[in-house]
Specification:
Low-confidence stretches: 14-28
Structural class: mainly alpha
CATH topology: Cytochrome Bc1 Complex, Chain D, domain 2
CATH class: Mainly Alpha
CATH superfamily: Cytochrome c-like domain
Strand content: under 5%
Number of domains: 1
Distance between the termini: 35 Å
Mean pLDDT: 81
Number of helices: 6
Helix content: 40-55%
CATH architecture: Orthogonal Bundle
Number of strands: 0
Order of helices and strands: HHHHHH
Length: 127
């Protein structure tokens, strides 16, 4: 049992390293203040769009009228994820850490591009 757990952790760490943007870009906007408002707005648009992220179908999102209840509420994101790379990895392919999750692997299945996921991460990081 422990072997599967450590394998999943290693896979997730490797995915975060491979998919993470350059270090300078990964730190950009860590406090939500360095990002231009347009970048945050684009991430918000992706999160709320039924044709893109459609996060509202499953999640309540802080600061919006989204009230989905299948997944956890999206608030206090920085407390839940140690850095943006970990959040990116979770959205890109949540099945690495939770193989039976209901959340679709947005990047793995090419529902969203890596660029769209990064914008989504930038928005979520402000919550």
């Amino acid at each position: 049992m422990m072997g599967k757990y450590w394998t999943a952790i290693c896979q997730r760490a490797l995915l975060a390293l491979v998919l993470a943007p350059a270090p300078a870009a990964a730190m950009r906007g860590a406090d939500g203040q360095n990002l231009p408002p347009s970048a945050i707005a684009e991430g918000r648009r992706i999160a709320l769009s039924p044709r893109l992220g459609n996060c509202t179908a499953c999640h309540a999102i802080a600061g919006t009228s989204a009230d989905g209840n299948l997944g956890p509420a999206l608030r206090d994101i920085r407390r839940l994820f140690p850095n943006k790379a970990a959040l990116f990895a979770e959205i890109y392919d949540p099945t690495i850490m939770a193989p039976r999750t209901a959340m679709p692997p947005f990047g793995k299945y090419r529902i969203l591009t890596s660029g769209q996921i990064q914008k989504l991460v930038d928005f979520l990081w402000t919550l």
